[in-house]
Amino acid sequence: MLGASVAGTNIQNAIQNAIQNASCVLTGAHLRRPLLSGAMQCPFCRADDTRVIDSRRAEDGETVRRRRRCEQCDNRFTTYERPVLPLLVKKRTGLTEPLDLEKVRRGVERSLAGRPVPEGTVEDIIVAVENAARAASPLVESETIGQIVLDGLKLIDEAAYLRFASVYKDFQGAQDFEREMAALDE
């Protein structure tokens, strides 16, 4: 009876290995095999056979920290499970849509185009927007996002600030630029 169980396990392992090897060849992913549904892959040997040896709450109970051990290579590693909440923006029109940080990035980059600014400037503004959105989660007003971008650009480059403000505040003429430049001087 024991022999049949061992043989069954060997067959299951052989089938699983064949499926994984075939999918690697089919996808061209020679270095990284696709994950099986629900499996946590070992970061050391890429085996799918890992076991949770300890679970604890972390970060004020919002995160679960799991200590895992790979059954194949016996290495240990830690994983964290956090809720992923969609960040939403409430537009001036009243519509709500998912926050698109790439859209914000494009607007900031257009404002800074051709301007001599330090590397990482755009990323710093995007991180500030994302942090504010997470703090207000799940819904942030579009005015809040626009003001964060304006404040960041005001500190970095006044010309970029005026470019962004002209679109964000919907300037209609030269007097709008003059009013905004006067506000910059205050």
List the helices and strands and how they pair.
Elements: H1 2-27, E1 50-58, E2 63-70, E3 76-81, E4 88-90, E5 96-98, H2 101-112, H3 121-135, E6 139-141, H4 142-156, H5 158-168, H6 174-185
Parallel strand pairs: 4-6
Antiparallel strand pairs: 1-2, 2-3, 4-5
Helix pairs in contact: 2-3, 2-5, 3-4, 4-5, 5-6
Summarize this entry quickly:
The protein is an alpha+beta fold and 186 residues long.
Give structural notes.
With 186 residues, the chain is an alpha+beta fold. The chain folds into 2 domains: 38-83, no CATH class; 88-185. 49% of the residues lie in helices and 17% in strands. The protein is built from 6 helices and 6 strands, in the order H-E-E-E-E-E-H-H-E-H-H-H. The strands form 2 sheets. A 3-stranded antiparallel sheet has the order 1-2-3, with no helix packed on it. The chain has a 3-stranded mixed sheet with strand order 5-4-6. Helix 2 runs antiparallel to helix 3, helix 2 packs across helix 5 and helix 5 (158-168) crosses helix 6 (174-185). It is elongated and about 70 Å long.
